[in-house]
Description:
The protein is α+β, with helices and mostly antiparallel strands. It contains one helix and two strands. The chain has one domain. A hairpin with a 3-residue loop joins strand 1 and strand 2.
Amino acid sequence: MEWVGNDKEEERACKIRIEDSIVVILCGDVDINKLRECLESVSAMKSHRGH
């Protein structure tokens, strides 16, 4: 790990490049049906945009 000191300290363990993607972080109790609905909505929007 690397510590970087500017006005505030930041911890960096890795670099991630995200392009035209969705990132999902799940914490605690997850309603799987609601998650499925949300992901299907995102997929439909991406399809509609032509990507």
